[in-house]
Each structure stands twice: as C-alpha cells, then as structure tokens.
Structure prediction request, 1040 residues.
Amino acid sequence: MRQRRAQDFICTADFPVVRTAQGKIRGFQTRGIYTFHGIKYADARRFHRPEPVKPWEGIRDALSYGFVCPLLTQDTPSCEALIPHRYWPMDENCQYLNIWTGSLDPEAKKPVMVWLHGGGFSAGSSIEQEAYDGENLSRYGDVVTVSLNHRLNILGYLDLSCYGEEYANSANAGNDDMIAALRWIQENIRGFGGDPDNVTLFGQSGGGMKVWTLMQTPEADGLFHKGIVQSGVLDGFLDSGEGDGRKIAEALLAELGFEKGQVKELETVPYRKLADAYRKVAPALKKQGFYVGENPKANAFYLGDPRKIGFRKEARKIPVIIGTVFGEFDFGPGYPGKYDLTRAQTMEALEKKYGRAAGELAELFEQAYPEKCLTDLLSLDNVFRAPTIDFVKERCKSPESLTYSYLFAYEFPFDDGKCAWHCSEIPYVFHNADRIPICRTPGVMEKLQDAVFGAWVSFARDGRPVVPGICWKACEKDREHVLVFDESCSLRTNFDHALIEKHLEATGPFRMEEAENIQH
Amino acid sequence: MRQRRAQDFICTADFPVVRTAQGKIRGFQTRGIYTFHGIKYADARRFHRPEPVKPWEGIRDALSYGFVCPLLTQDTPSCEALIPHRYWPMDENCQYLNIWTGSLDPEAKKPVMVWLHGGGFSAGSSIEQEAYDGENLSRYGDVVTVSLNHRLNILGYLDLSCYGEEYANSANAGNDDMIAALRWIQENIRGFGGDPDNVTLFGQSGGGMKVWTLMQTPEADGLFHKGIVQSGVLDGFLDSGEGDGRKIAEALLAELGFEKGQVKELETVPYRKLADAYRKVAPALKKQGFYVGENPKANAFYLGDPRKIGFRKEARKIPVIIGTVFGEFDFGPGYPGKYDLTRAQTMEALEKKYGRAAGELAELFEQAYPEKCLTDLLSLDNVFRAPTIDFVKERCKSPESLTYSYLFAYEFPFDDGKCAWHCSEIPYVFHNADRIPICRTPGVMEKLQDAVFGAWVSFARDGRPVVPGICWKACEKDREHVLVFDESCSLRTNFDHALIEKHLEATGPFRMEEAENIQH
Prediction:
C-alpha cells in the first residue's frame, strides 16, 4: 500500500463518513475541521409538513451545498463591500443543513450552534453571506456549527388552513422545517461530536425572529436550550389576522385562472408562476389591511409575539443574548467629512432631520455616546433598538429569565467612518472577519472579534457570555445592562433609553414598507 | 481633523477613485490591492453590437459585482468539493468587468491579465468559481487582473444575420462584448496601473476557446498581445453551417406564437420565455444537423477554427501557452483503493474499458507516465489532449509562432488519489490554492502554485514562462516540448503522443453530447 502523506484535506472513499438515522454520509476534513455540506434533513410537499427523508443504502456525499429556497424576486447586488453575498441555485426542495465540527467522536459532546439566516422569512439562505461559513467558528470556538435552509415566503408561510387539515400549518411551514432540522440534530448530532442537550440557536434579522418564534413554539421545546437574537425584534413585521388566508388564496386562484376552491392546483403550479401571481395580488391585499403570506402566523403551532402575549413558561427558562447594531438600516452613502464639520454645521444637519427636537437629541446622544461623533446621531437606528428594549423588559418580568443585552457600536473605515449597519457584526460572530475586507483593521479586528465571538461561544458552552475584563451581568427589572461592543467594550446600564425614546418620538415609528425595500 | 489609523481596508468618499473615459469610479483598497467590482464597460440591445456606456457626472461606486448573463438552465450543485462555485443574480444587461491592481499610477504600466471564464459559450461568469478571485494574482504577481462577464448562449450567439444588417453579428455578440471590454481596457487601464500595450488573455475551457476565437478575429488585433489557452481546444464544439440561423429563428417564432419574419419580437420577449422556447426547439434541430445558437459562428468578424483554416498572420505572432489537465471530464467517483490493486486486477479493469487494446495502452501509459499508478489510465482525458496536440502542430507550421505546451498532471488527495479534473488547475493559476480546501496539501500546494502561477505571470510580463530550475522551451515542428506540472515538474518532448493516438483509437472520438452534460 502506498504511503499517504499528512493532508490538510482528506476525503477518501470511507473517511470521513458518519452514519445518520437514515444512512451514511461522507464529508471532508480540512485542517482539522470535518465539513458536511448539503445534508437533506427532511422532505416536504408544497404547503405540507416536512417528513423525514427515506433511508438509503451505501454512502451519500455531503460535498455540495444544497438548493436554497426560491425567492419572490431576484436580488440586485448592491452594498457588496458592506455585505459580501453568495447566491446559490434555487429549488423548493430545499431542506438542507451543513455541519462543521472538530470531532466525530460521539463522546465529544461539544456545544452545538445552529445558525438561522436572515432575510425576513422571505429571502436569504444558509450560505447567503460570505460571513456565514462555519469552519472558523468550529475551529476556534470548539463547537459544532450547523446552518440550514428552509422554506421561505409563500412556500413557507402562506396560510391555507381554512382549506382543511392537510394545510393546518402551511402558515408556518418554514418554521416547521426548522423544527424538523432540530429533530434531525437531536437524533444525529452526537455522531458529529455534538451534544444534543446543549443546542444554541443564533440568528440575525429574520434569523433572530426565527429564534424567538421558535421559543414560542411548543413543538420546539427540548430541541434547543439557548438563543441569540441579533437585530431580530421589530414592530409591524409579524402579525396575524383571522381568515385572511382565504382572501389571498382566492386572489391567487383567480389570478392564475383556476376556479374558487381549486386550492389543490396551487400545490403543483410552477413556483415562478405562483410567485408572479402573488406579487401581482399581494400589494392590493396588503393595502386593504390583510395579513399576507410571508411571515409566520400565530396558531396552535406558533403561539405569537411575546411582546403581545408574554413568554411561554418554557421560553422564560431559555437563556438569551439579544441585541442590535448602532446604524442598522442606514445603508446610505454616509456623511463624508463628518469629523471635519463644525458643531454649527452638525446641528444644522440634525435640525434638518429632527426639527426642533435636534437640540435635546444632541444632548441625549452625547450622554449616551460621549466618545462618538455627534453626526452619528443621523445614523442612529430607529427600527430595532426600541422593540429590543421592550423585549428585554418583557423577559425581565420573570426573575428566572436570563437575558444578556448588547449593542454593536463599532465604526467601520468606510466613507470617512460608517456606523455599524445591519449584518455588520456577523463576520465577528463567525470568526470570519479576516475574510471580509471591510473588517480588516489592524489591532482592532482581532480584539473586537475575540470579544464578540468569545461571548457567543462561551454562552453556547454554559449559558454565560464572557468578554475579557468585563463582568457581563444579565438584565434585571428596570435595569438593562448593555454590553457595548466597540474598539473598547464596556457594560452600561439603561445608557440610551432616554435617547431612544426621544429619537422614536422625533422620527415616528418605523413603517413596514421601509423594511420591504431592504433585503438582508 | 480626526487622526486616521493605518487600515487594511480603505474606501473613503474620494479614495480610491479613478477617472475613466466615461466618468469617475470608486473601488476599495485592501492590503495594498485596489479593487473595482462591477464596472460597466458597454451597453447592448439584445442581439445587437455593444456600445460604450453613456458618460456620467460625479462618482459611481464599483463595490458590487455586476449581473451575470442569464443561463438557459439552472445549475444543479455537484462536485462542489472539487470545484467550489459562486453564483450570482442574472440579467442580460451583463457587460461588467472587475479589476484588481496594486497601483493606480498611470506610469506603473504593469502587465494586464484578462480572465475569460469557462462554461462553454453558454454558461459561467467572471465570478462563477471561488478560485477566480483576482486579488492574490495581482498581489503576488504584480499584475493588473481583469475579469469580465459577457453575453452567453442565445443572447450571445444566436445567428439572425439573415434578417438584416442590424443583426449582422448576433452570432458573435458575446465575443463582440469581449472586444468592447478589451477596447475599454485599452482606453482606461493606465489609470489602474496597467500597460495597454501588454495585455494577456487567459481562459479555461470555454474561456480558452474565447482566447483563440479572439485570435481569429480581426477587430481584436492590437487589443491583446499574448494568450493562454487552458483546456480550451476540443472537437465538434465550434462549427458553422450556412443559413441555419433562419431555421432556428423560425422555429423560435413558431414556438412563441409569432408570425414568420417577426424577428423583432425576439428582441423583447422576456428572456425566460425565449430560453424555454429555445430549449424546446433546439434538440430536434441539432438532431437534423443544424448548427444552433450557443457558440460563435465563423463570419466576417470571426474567421474560424485555426485547425481548419489556419492561423491568421496576426494570430501567428501572438505568443501562446496552451495545455490540458490529465483527467479533464473524469468527474466520476474515482477508483478507491487503486494503489492496492494487483496488476492483474488493474489489467482486468483496463480490459473492461479498452478491450484488446488494453495491453498496448498499458505499455504506452507506463512509458509516458512511469511514476503514475497504472489505474490512472482509466481517467486519461480523451477530449482535449488530442485536439491540443493538433493545435500545437498547426501553430508550429510558422517558425515565428511561440507556443508553450503544458500538461497539469497532479493527483489530488480525493477518493484515494484523483487525477486532475477539468478546472482543477485554476486555483494554482490565481494563487488561490489556499482558498480551495482540496488544494491544501502541505509542502506541495505552495510549490505547485509557485510553478503554475509563476509561469503564467512571467509569461504575461515578457512572453517567456519561467518555471524554476527548468528551461521551458517553445514547441518546434514535430517536437512538442510539454511542461508537465506535478509534484515535481519536468519538460518532456512528444512524451504522450503514441499513447494519446492509441487511446483515441480505443475510445473513439469524443461526442459533443457528452460535453453538454458537463457545465464547467
């Protein structure tokens, strides 16, 4: 037999191979990390609940990412320097997950971190951003990283429940897929060195919403144990209306030329046709106040927004990290030369945006962010932070709930200093900052990454997020302790509440239509 | 003014900004490399010749890759461990190029390397493979790297010339786009530190064909000065038939419900409809022997295959590197345990494939490749190597033609040793081997990369490919000197001609239909 040399890449006929409940799969190992791309965790008929895949003989390759869910519209690439994307072929047969792990020993029992991607509930995928790659998180964090695709938009969230039992949960089929993936993890993750009794969900934007909607889902009880909600609470995004499903289905049937009640036809019409019809009929229905089919809807499966109905008692016990970033949806061109503006010039710009509130806001801003440039007030998020404060308040009603709050406030070297935008913390979470050019600031990148990544991973390990040199306390009733991630990190209590309240007053509440133009 | 710190990423309001003939564009700089993604180099109406884009005021961002050309069918991800892909949003408005450079000094005059992607003439894009990223090639090679998208398949190569002057070159619209990009480079590349008088085209598979079709295109004269053809010569792929364009157009019009002669309608019908119609009508026409619309067609613009009509005298003067890889289209599961087979077992497998020729082939193989496992004969390419030998022969008819031949014969650590497959040399060319896990063999990766990358870059610099320790001679009449890239590199003369001839006899010539199932 020929002598094999040490390799930084290994993939032979029988290594690495793991036996899952349905059959054996083969991945590859690179620099110590075993990698499995595109494991099919479930199958599903359109609008129906997912089912386990059929068992197979022999070894299946898990060497290619699986299809991602088709989108209603194609993205137009923009802001790629801020958020590098990775697109992928689409098919509604999209129930695939990916695993990165440093061990295949069933006794290794490493913490499992399951990434739920953003894009609302209508877009995105497990590999949509370059930063989502799990190899470094597993390598440097000694965890098992899992990411997954699931059904989105009308494939995942169209409410056809009024048409019979078989569609009972079509309004939450996407979340149902996630539960199927979590069940798959329970059943199989030990073979990948993971601990099924220590599963942490983490997700950003829509991914953060997925975390807390699953906390409010009885079928998910016991399938995960901790949650991290990154920029994942906002108003007006998740709602419910009784009986609206029929309205949408009827409009779709009419648009597609089917008879009333021929809802079965919607199962087989090509997705592109269905999506086009939906895009045609949905805006008018939305205008009439109907709740249409792109987000989970409260029912027996998903009980509803905890800020409206409170946290379920099982959800209260789940430790949570929750936070936002400074600028969120401020993807604009920035404020060139902001550090060279005189105070008078800055105030002029502030008054233009905030009117008579500018003076008070400036004062509150400088109290909350004494180290920041006053012009940054123009970039301050008015979408996620206020609802997140509410979320934390609701959590703190139960003394048993552990809730760790953060704010990612880093200023990037873009356009003379750009406040952290929606998604900008993700490269640091995944220990992938070096892969994303805009994160490459010597002396800062590593430190900031160690703080964010280190906190996420220590939380996944034992429920306590650790940032070196700081005692990150959980929030208490009326006392929101906020870990502010920046060039220097600090823990600050209720530090921006007055600012955020006044800011919301001045800008008015965020309107859903604004979010629909932003696909992240 | 605030003190700015040294950055590994710079993108301010006015830096880096380059003035092009049409207007200013802004990119970013990372670790010394200036990067511009998605520069629009031309506009074009469907089936028409490209035109320069309209001038603009102010600064346009070149921070996001541009649309890629729509494909006839969606890829199904497979073999991703062998060739990691990167897909992207599609639009026929796809004339975009990308630039990576270490200098913006008009006096820097660095060699310019222009990458033409593979995928036949019907698929692929400038960023379709992870390995295509130009940052490292520019950094380590001190060259200006350019890659580009252009029109493909029926958008780039549907022959409507019989319908009038405005469609005179629709059969080569994709190549026409490339010429527009090369003109843009002539006009603008000095602003990116490049030398417009030292432009090297390099491309693989379809990209290699693009290199030599442009050598046979008078309008490209003077726009480039050297060419590298990687696995880019094969039989039956490029052909021409007089008058076939009308047949296809009429079939398309009928399929789409238009009247005969309403060819104008084809300009505005949505691409998806046009593509679906084409996919429906093309197979029957192909069966009838008609040449359909997915490849360049010889006309006044593109003169034709040099192996049929000879090289144009301008083409003869262009120095060329040309070569193939050992296994090419052998993407199969490999031959597990091949090093453990007895000679009898190997001969049995060979006889199964080659019949009575097995013995002679084995002998010829062991003469050509004494260091290789005899089982590898089963993987030997029968698509590109023989036509490439012909190509070299045709070149060597002119003593003035400099032609450097190579064969990439490396065995990868996959499936117990997998012979180099189509595309597998690309990561080494771009100095991106470390980004592609399967290339990460300690002690081999760097050496092999230095050899391949170093040869390509030195050739781009002054027309002489340098591999350390080897005098890489140009081919001579009846003497093909072949640089064999492997764990150890060597220059060998006519080393596999007898083998290839006998092999082709045993397998029969490659049939086009086989290639159509492989999209790389």
About this structure: Chain B touches chain A through 58 residues (CB under 8 Å).
